[in-house]
Amino acid sequence: MPALLALAAGGLLAGLALAAFLSLPQVKDFSPAAGAQNVSSRAPIRITFNRPMDSASVEATLHFTPEAAGTFAWQGNMVTFAPRQPWPVGSAITASLDGGKSRGGLPLLGAHTWTFTISGERIAYLTDNPPNLRFIPLAEGAQPQPITTEALGVYDFDLSPDGQRFVYSALRADGGADLRAINADGSGATDVLLCPGEACLTPAFSPDGQRVAYEQHALVAGAGGEVTFGESHVHLVTLATGADEAAGDSTAPDAETRFPRWGPDGRLSYFDTTRQAMVVQDLTTQAVSYIPDSSGEMGTWSPDGEFIVYPEIFFPPEPTPIPGAPEAEHTDTFFSHLLRVTIATNATENLSGEGVVEDASPVYSPDGAWLAFARKSLDQARWTPGRQLWLMRADGSDARPLTNEPLYHHSAFVWSPDGRRLIYMRSNAVTPGLPAEIWTINSGGTGARKLVEGGYLPQWMP
Predict the structure, then answer these.
(1) Do residues 98 and 182 both lie within one domain?
(2) What CA–CA distance (Å, rounded) separates 261 from 460?
(3) Other C-beta atoms within 10 Å of 249: how many?
(4) pLDDT score, position 38
(5) pTM here?
């Protein structure tokens, strides 16, 4: 009997010990995963626990090598750490969680240390026939790598703010397109929104990465049976739920909207072709303002959310000579200047000055100090077939060209996250049909180098 009692007591103690062990908080998952390669320099750290945690104790015991400052956010049992500055490119990051306790005061089971590697600089772009997403490191001699393998091709795409996922328009056999998403390494392709009988194009991630704005186009059958994209309405899809809704009055009978662009504070802008105006919509209050815009082009938000710079059409007060034509022949064709509008007041400033130029495609630098844009002079002495890449300060001063290749158009400008370089498309302006190229150049105008032959729509992968 004593032996049985001892055995029973031992079993009870073992059961109690097991129960105590199982009640300890544990790490269920973390990302980036241990050993992960080519991680975005903007990637957040996410740790999921099996029970509610004391947030202060976790935040105080999570450390990084090299050291990193940032902000914490909790959602249920998951904590997210967003670095204040990008992780060092090409470096190995070690994360260590050596403490923490549950809300009930129980200590975290075990210490956890893992290491992942930040990618070197690289860009994503579309290429091939049918077109698909590729990326290529910027290192000399690097080879492109596939991201998507859509049988009918990708129409366009966007990269999430944390650099972890793409959303793209996947073309269908009926001429339409659905929205799909895929991890930056080419894994985990999923449907975001099926668009039967329509084409969902031009996806754009919100700054918090939780929603995607896009154009929903009707499909129009031509006389020969070919399908084209018809009337467009800007919509929003919430990624967590799949809920889809029209932006503002985008579905009004006489409204046609396109070109969604997000402001840094989460406001949404898009072009209303009926009103000939840019719409700026506060999605929290639903307040809407309108900026007259006869060019039909969208602009670029300043990083502080105060301004939008966009090209506007002007007509010369006197006829403009046709370059290379006899002196007696003239045309009164339009030209375009860049306007900076203060969103709160609609007050505008002409950043292009008084010259007869064709300015287009403005893009703010990450710090808001500079604008990259395309310029072509229209006066007889300086006219060229192609637009060149120019820089000017955000107030319009100190304008200067970075390229001088008169036979080539330069477009699709994208700043590097540190503002030191740009990538852009270069296409032959006098020989149609030649493949577009993707180039990089330092912001000072040096180091121009071709990265891709036959690529377009480049995006920097942070």
Answers:
(1) no
(2) 17
(3) 17
(4) 83
(5) 0.84
